[in-house]
Amino acid sequence: MTLSTPPTTHSAPSADLFDLISHPQVLRAAWKTVRRNKGAPGGDGQSITDFGADLSREIPVLVEELHAGRYRPRPLRSVRIPKKSGGQRELRIPAVRDRVVQSAAARLLERRLASWMSPASFAYRPKLSRAHAAGQITTWRLFGFDWIAESDIADFFGTLPHPVLRAAMREAIGDAPRLEALIELWLTSFATGPSGMRGIAQGSPISPLLANLALTPVDRAIHSRRVKLVRYADDFVLLTRNEAAARSSLEKMAALLAERGMILNAEKTRLSRFGFGLSFLGYTFLDHGVWPEKP
Question: Where are the alpha helices (DSSP H) in the chain?
Fold first, then answer.
């Protein structure tokens, strides 16, 4: 399976996406998703219960603000949760109203960009899962790709450069100024660091899609006849037929990321063969099989 480079525009126009996102029925459907996912209030303190109690007013207000150009994201709320590997992960939670609009955008963009996204990417995508990623790794192993370069991107959600994301977005959706302006509002609210040009909020409904958007050009540049990529969010493995190719592929991945202002996580970067074992996405891979790891 080779990743081909798609055209920069699609037969279906992308300019209508903003009108679809801001349609009352679409926002109501997105509200149901937000309600089903539960979750805490954002920075404005409004709970899901409070938003739902005033739904007949909240949705029309969102529609009017979006169409009038007055919509602005409310403050995020930061929460730290423990990571399985140790340390803490920062979640930044948008306001309920912002989660509604972001959920509408994420759902519609997922459908529109399904064929544009990389088939090597398995996270945050409909009908794909860790199990599918594990199955793809096993398939490449059966085809003789038994050397593995494994890593992830250092602080990916906190440091993703916005210019990289904008470039990928324009390639994917073509000319859609109102949609770009909407996403730009969210990027501004997500920004971290002194430059204000980096980071997406882990905890936002739109961030997983933006993450896949930003990394799809990297996927295409690394995946080839000699190097097979399997990526889950910013975690990935590169599979090759020999050690030299594994080292070379890892160097190429590091260079591709560096060109885009990202770096590999040195602590999680390693080369190995299947015979020495691979632990990835909650699975253990060995020469003679693959097994889910115990919780």
Answer: 17-21, 24-37, 48-53, 55-68, 96-112, 130-142, 156-159, 162-173, 177-190, 207-222, 243-259
Structure tokens at 273: 């063969």
Q: Which residues pair with 163 in a beta bridge?
A: none
Strands 228-232 and 77-82: unpaired
C-alpha Rg value of the chain to the nearest Å: 20
Locus of tokens 């770096």: 263
pLDDT for res 291: 66
What distance in Å separates the CA atoms of residue 271 and residue 23, rounded to the nearest whole number? 49
Three-state DSSP state, 101: helix
What is this structure's pTM? 0.89
Average pLDDT over residues 23-34: 98
The tens digit of pLDDT for each residue in 74-96 reads: 999 999 888 776 678 889 999 99
238-251 tens-digit pLDDT: 999 999 999 999 99
The count of C-alpha atoms lying within 13 angstroms of the C-alpha of 95, restricted to the half-sphere facing its C-beta, is 18
Give the per-residue pLDDT at 294: 65
pLDDT digits (tens, 9 = 90+) for 143-170: 999 999 999 999 999 999 999 999 999 9
The helix or strand, by DSSP H or E, that contains position 9, with its residue range, turns out to be: none
Query: Distance between CA atoms of 192 and 275, rounded to whole angstroms?
Result: 42
Beta strand 88-93 pairing with 147-152: unpaired
- Amino acid identity of 288? H
